[in-house]
Amino acid sequence: xxxxxxxxxxxxxxxxxxxxxxDEEEGMSSCSTDVKENRNLDNLFSKEGAAAxxxxxxxxxxxxxxxxxxxEGNNGHAHSKYRPKKRKxxxxxxxxxxxxxxxxxxxxxxxxxxxxxxxxxxxPVFVMTVEVNGQLFEGSxxxxxxxxxxxxxxxxxxxxxxxxxxxxxxxxxxxLSVHTDFTSDQADFPDMLFNGFETSxxxxxxxxxxxxxxxxxxSLGIEYPLLASPVPNCLAQAPAPPPPPPAAFASPTSGKNxxxxxxxxxxxxxxxxVSESGESHAKNFVMSVxxxxxxxxxxxxxxxxAKARAAQAALSALFNMQLxxxxxxxxxxxxxxxxxxxxxxxxxxxxxVVDKFSELTENFTSPHARRKVLAGIVMTTGTDVKEAQVICxxxxxxxxxxxxxxxxxxxLNDCHAEIVARRSLIRYLYSELEHFLGHNKxxxxxxxxxxxxxxxxxxxxxxxxxxxxxxxxxxxxxxxxSPHEAGVEDQGDRHPNxxxxxxxxxxxxSGEGTIPVRSSNTIQTxxxxxxxxxxxxxxxxxxxxxxNVVGFQGSLMSYFTEPIYFSSIILGSLYHADHLSRAMYQRxxxxxxxxxxxxxxxPLLSGISNAEARQPGKAPNFSVNWTVGDQGLxxxxxxxxxxxxxxxxxxxxxxxxxxxxxxxxxxxxxxRIQTAKPSTYHEAKQAAAEYHEAKQTLIKAFHKAGLGAWxxxxxxxxxxxxxx
Length: 724
Description:
- The protein is about 30% helix and about 15% strand.
- The protein has about 725 residues and is of the alpha+beta class.
């Protein structure tokens, strides 16, 4: 009888315990459940570990101990004379916590949401999101659990610094062979773990500059507001400064993204979505934030990156803070007056050009929106980038076929986007000079030019600057490198072909890419080309280097103005500070004895925050151009240098020369160059003596540096006159 009562009591107690355990489990938050579910992810617990944990449970079946029932009425509390015996812990390794558990300890109560499920039934891909500190992190995986873990890892990377390296790597599901101190000044751990926005620079780079007390950075005695870029050893004008001590790189912001840093300085900021633009393969989002009554914008391939860029712009402007960036990705500031923050300017110029191209191609739906390279020129007239104006937009990657060369200046020889953009800019400058054809003072004021004080020639108004944007690095020397081979900049250039760095290169007829110039026979003949010899055209890198010496205005415009230089050269992709700076000006720093009004221009060089994706596939055979004031795009067949109906382009030599002749006649009294009226296009060009002296000095500098000889087109193509 007694045994029966005891048995009934045991059954009731076990049922009550099961009910309590069920209630407790149902009352737990979804986050706690997720943490439980993910304890066994990625085989973190071995079977032995699971058995050991079971052995430690009071009511567990493991361990071989006899279960004691709890006394009725105690409702599971410990105030009972039947207390379980304390069992000894079985020794074993301390099991690491995965990223989901780590994040839950730091930020309890986070909610994970399913964003999407794609893929076939047998191989689904789940995307889960979690919001931490106002930022949304996405993670993907074959199961919801894996996707959550991935999202948690990304969230941790953005703001957590672990007390030691092994804990960090275990949380991320990695192993580490050596014990590294994550709080040390030496950046000897993978940067990608903690900073999703920038990559810290290696400490052993001799060209990575330390901060001065005034917050600027100095190299070779020149102070810049940003970190200067490394300079190749063979081209440096002065010995490289010694590496700064490791302490120079210690920063309280290390491991934090710009949004977090700004939030610490100005809590409670709100980020607003401004716009979304760009082609499907290269979306661009713009976010803004208002700090201390100033509005800052940032752009990126997603909203998270755009927020980070907006925060970085605010940090740069208000607190003079620059997050560490690999030297090869650092903008190189221009010499002289800087009216804009480099990265803010670069992103704004890129966005303006892409948006204008979108507008001209009906949101990229037009058949002429197809392109490999997009270029454009933006004009600023002061410090406010928002007042910038797109002057011209162009596309193209091909040159004329030799048999279509024109001896009357009716065909475009080079339809590469940046070359077409520069011709469009010259066309714009002619239209600005035409404001002075009349005597109306108000009309004169509309021009970007103003008369020189000595009444001879014109000059740009104060603070007028032109910025060249190219969607990728210009062909030739600036593009001859491997973009994904890291670490070269830290060890010096060991490339087997490094002696060819800086070499002059030519584009080839009916193809893409460039080849080094031959050491001899750089003169091309008209009959040789017509007979089948391939027409060679200097690479875009070499042409832009020439513009940095003689100006982009050309010889004919030199009659009216002093040399005009680009203030910035901004690349949408494949930006590398070393290679671009070498191609643009470093390889000719030894240039000597330039005429008085000419100089070696060192423009701002910069990439953009939202680098364009590579576009594989065959390049279209056409080039398009648009200049401010035009109704729409002009489409040119790159093979023939004319439109598809055989009509000459509005950018061809003949058309621009006819505008020059008109200006030359009307403004002859105020010209910088006083000569008799030239009879041919060639004569008009040769009369610009100072310009040609500067050009010859440049060619000698290339030759003296062992970089090759400049290849000239057949002279016959310039010996045309206008019909009277």
